[in-house]
């Protein structure tokens, strides 16, 4: 038990240090890639609360990512020009949206839940596309302010470390949650949801709790994306965006706390470098996914865990 | 021995299509000790338990617990009011440790539950951090009862706890039930007649969705109708 805890913290410390020193390279491209990695990690960690913990397969998680990004853009352009306040507003908007969508979707069986989340995600996509006066339609919103009344993120290094601070905050808070009693209760849904009521807990309430935490953290990822890119467009709500944290989580391993982070790293590396070689990154990603799902459903970390377990290692599992 | 009435069911009816699994069942449980419910397969024993614990809704009739009408309540609310149960086929968080299984159940009763105390009381110390799925069947049964007790019930319902156990494991489970019956009333649904007659204070006999007899073990053993219908004599 203690050793498992040690290995989890060990990997998280390495990731935190590695991401902290990337800007020392002074390579804008690496800084950009590392920012993308951190944002996708936050998005995937939030996704895994539903997928790996609560056993809920959402096809519409981009709903909260896009709502975070758009609310940041709209708020900082039209209401109050500040990235920090904008980020907090994005979290609040995504949280409220998660509560509403959760109430409407979480009473249903798992298949219906998956289909309903897909429908809600695409509903937002359509709304972002058609409500041109607010969202800019297919052009999206550009010119998102990076400097504001409280903080200034005009400098790319400041921007990077702003994303880094939120990345650390999310990782630490989710790790505390993962080890907490609420984390355990949400995990119980994924292990045997039918038994949960007989331990005195309401499945619906636990699902709502998971959905709200997950949705609001996805909102942070969306806001950080808007800060990084300075532009948002409706594709952020499209179903393929919802697939990104799912694919990253599957690659890394949904049964491991650090799984979505490792998966995000692999995802960013593959989508960047495989596309450089040729336009075959989808093929590479697809082959990796097929190999992992057929060979090891726990992702890359399951493979590592198996090797270590064979050497009497006690495991990295959630 | 008859104390305060804990549970009362009145005229419960539950149909599955054209089949009446419960056909106007009424009974009352009072005081501590084990009340066993017996009957041939299809008698309606498990359906009765499922209706009492909220797994199934009755088509007619009422269920009262400590004087409160709990008919149709969802299972988690019924657990919180004080009725815990186990299942014919072991139902646990098999991918989690014994400690986590008990901790999840005790969290429904707030912060104060002493998970390690429960583990000690049920003699599960050596299995504390073991994944439940890797434990022997008999130990899993005891974990199931420990999880039920972690919800601090005022009534415990055990649905065929001896199913699939060897005689050594049965001895372990009987020992635990004997400890528990001193603290709270226990309803036991069981097919092993040796266990039922050795452990019960009262026996209720069901057949074809109805209660056909009720009384002390020796009364039931002498009951002509029971011998005819249940024992086939």
Written description of the protein model:
The complex is a heterodimer of chains A (318) and B (233). Chain A is built from 13 helices and two strands, in the order H-H-H-H-H-H-E-H-H-H-E-H-H-H-H. By secondary structure, chain A is mostly helical. Chain A has one domain (2-238). A two-stranded antiparallel ribbon of chain A has the order 1-2. Chain A starts with a helix and ends in an 8-residue tail after the last helix. The model of chain A is unreliable at 312-316 (pLDDT under 50). The longest helix of chain B is centred in the C-terminal third of the chain and has 15 residues, at 167-181. In chain B, the strands form two sheets. A six-stranded mixed sheet of chain B has the order 6-7-8-3-9-10, with helices on both faces. Chain B has 233 residues and is α/β, with parallel strands linked by helices. Chain B has nine helices and ten strands. Helices cover 34% and strands 27% of the residues of chain B. In chain B, helix 3 (98-107) crosses helix 4, helix 3 (98-107) packs parallel to helix 5 and helix 5 packs parallel to helix 6 (167-181). Chain B has two domains: 1-82 and 153-233, Rossmann fold; 91-152, no CATH class. At the A-B interface, helix 8 of A face helix 2, helix 3 and helix 5 of B.
